[in-house]
Amino acid sequence: MNALDIQGLRLQLPGTARPVLDGVDLTVAAGETVALVGESGSGKTLTSRSALRLLPPGARAEGKVLVAGEDVLTMDADRLRALRTGQAAMIFQDPRAATNPLRRIGDFLTESVTLAGKMNRAEATERAVSLLGAVGLGPELLGRYPGQLSGGMLQRVVIAAALMGDPALLLADEATTALDVTSQAEVVALLGRLREQFGTGLLFVTHDLGLAAAISDRVYVMYAGRIAEVGPAAALFEHPRHPYTAALLAATPRPDAPGGRLAAIDGQPPDLRQELTGCAFAARCPLATELCRTVVPEPVKVSGGHLAACHHSDQLEGSTARV
Amino acid sequence: MSETVLEVSGLCRTFGDVRAVDEVSFTLPAGGSLGIVGESGSGKTTTARIVVGLEEADAGSVTVRGRRREGRARGKAERLTRAREVQMVFQDPYLSLDPRYGVQDVLRETLRLHFPDADPAPRVAELLDQVGLGTRAAEALPRQLSGGQRQRVAIARALAVEPAVLVLDEAVAALDVSVQAQVLNLLADIRERTGVGYLFITHDLGVVRCVTEEVIVMRQGRVVEAGRTEAVLADPQHPYTRLLLDSVPRPGWEPSLIAAARREVG
């Protein structure tokens, strides 16, 4: 059973001309690391939040979001609360915003499981201490306040808190973006170890293509609410078959690339107030033809597990990109 | 590349017990581009703020176009002169633009202050064109613009006074990859055309590779390595620079090895 199985998720918000999520299909197997990559407004955060049914006010959702086999979109409030304290947990970008500065780390770690009645206080504290150990921190932290810890340490506390309910699915939304590169490496190494140890499925939402390539088994690339391309990390980054993926890779500055101008993508992502006909990327795409402007491309299999939603993905066959 | 436009020497700044900036020296040739790389707490932003004049140094000197800056600016004339020497672009254009001022008004205000006798209109048009903003954006308020457009406005405002040096503090860090590439290319074009010098503060080694000729690496207030960007990135000499480079995620990356190396560097 998959830790997360999203099938044909469409999300319509009030005051928009097109759905913010338009038929998203995504799976995370148990113990698998999946990266969801995209720019602001692509819908990557909404997709990950849908796994906890954290939807914006007035949102209308269609499709299925299965977490450990249960549909999150249709379950009742009690079940949903149990899911949020148990099977699925989320790590947000800013650990300072995710913690209460006036409450001690120990209370922060134990409150969700004790409130849910899963453990008594002593059991919860014992688990908190063992999880702090797993993220490389000592039990003395239980009595400290968030303001007494550095950002990297606090992010590790937040990760420990996410693991308190023994989740099948861990959602990390830009969880390392606010950290320095060297602390990012620490946190990523930690997430990798925890995934092995606890068999948790990990959905890693990020805008950083290099990070996605480095840590994940599979990668989904989103653009304007749709999945543009999905595939094994190595295949997708070495041989992108969607022009958007290829363009993003070319636009990323890299320390080992020659200096000078970047291959920027002209234009802007489509506005939510505009209806989309055809491919969402057509207006910025060098390969676009009349077909692209009128017909929405379906995901086409280019090799085992590698799909690209592009009418002209065959033109990118044999292309190579460097990461 | 002979003339030096900015010379910083022996800069120190202490906050309480912390030496935020510790004996930092560097020079920026006219029309050159120098990167300052480091992590949080390395002192790179404090250094930038001292150069601009938002922070005072405890010791050391900042010399711009051969004119040494002594202490705090006294009087309006001195403040304006300093503003025409060095301008700054911040990370977050949401915070650095007044939400009630339209784009044209922002530029007109700056021009009126610095060049009261000149008609601002042609210069406003020229600046907007220089940063690739159309007439529709010119009428807009900051909240009606995208992050990339807002950052273009901040750059246009900084360029309005024709400064010798532009200090860019993580100026592209908040932008999406595709927009970031557009702004980085724009910055390269502007430098080519106007000969302004860049002091580029960033944590991103890819960005440094892209827009700077020389780089200094800072750690705990000190410069640990300095040199040509190409050389430093291809063949880092200091273990900390190497750690920074190894920490950039890429396929086959071993985060646990980096975590171990990090503890070793201490």
Protein described:
- Chain A has 323 residues and is of the alpha/beta class.
- Chain A contains 11 helices and 12 strands.
- In chain A, helix 5 packs across helix 6 and helix 6 (151-163) packs parallel to helix 7.
- Chain A starts with a strand and ends in a 15-residue tail after the last strand.
- Chain B is of the alpha/beta class and 266 residues long.
- In chain B, helix 8 (177-194) links the parallel strand 7 and strand 8.
- Chain B has 2 domains: 4-100 and 163-235, P-loop containing nucleotide triphosphate hydrolases (Rossmann fold, 3-Layer(aba) Sandwich); 240-266, no CATH class.
- In chain B, the strands form 2 sheets. Chain B has a 6-stranded mixed β-sheet, sandwiched between helices.
- Chain B starts with a strand and ends with a helix.
- Chain B is built from 12 helices and 10 strands.
- Classes of the chains: A alpha/beta (323), B alpha/beta (266).
- The interface between A and B is large, with 43 and 42 residues.
CATH architecture of chain A: 3-Layer(aba) Sandwich
Using the coordinates shown, work out and report the CATH topology of chain A: Rossmann fold
- What oligomerization state is this entry in? heterodimer
Give the percentage of residues in beta strands of chain B: 15-25%
CATH superfamily of the largest domain in chain B: P-loop containing nucleotide triphosphate hydrolases
Please identify the top-level CATH class of the largest domain in chain B: Alpha Beta
Helix content of chain B: 40-55%
Outline type of chain A: globular
Output the CATH class name of chain A.
Alpha Beta
Return the domain count of chain A.
Answer: 1
Instruction: Supply the number of structural domains of chain B.
Output: 2
Spans of at least 5 consecutive residues with low confidence of chain A:
none
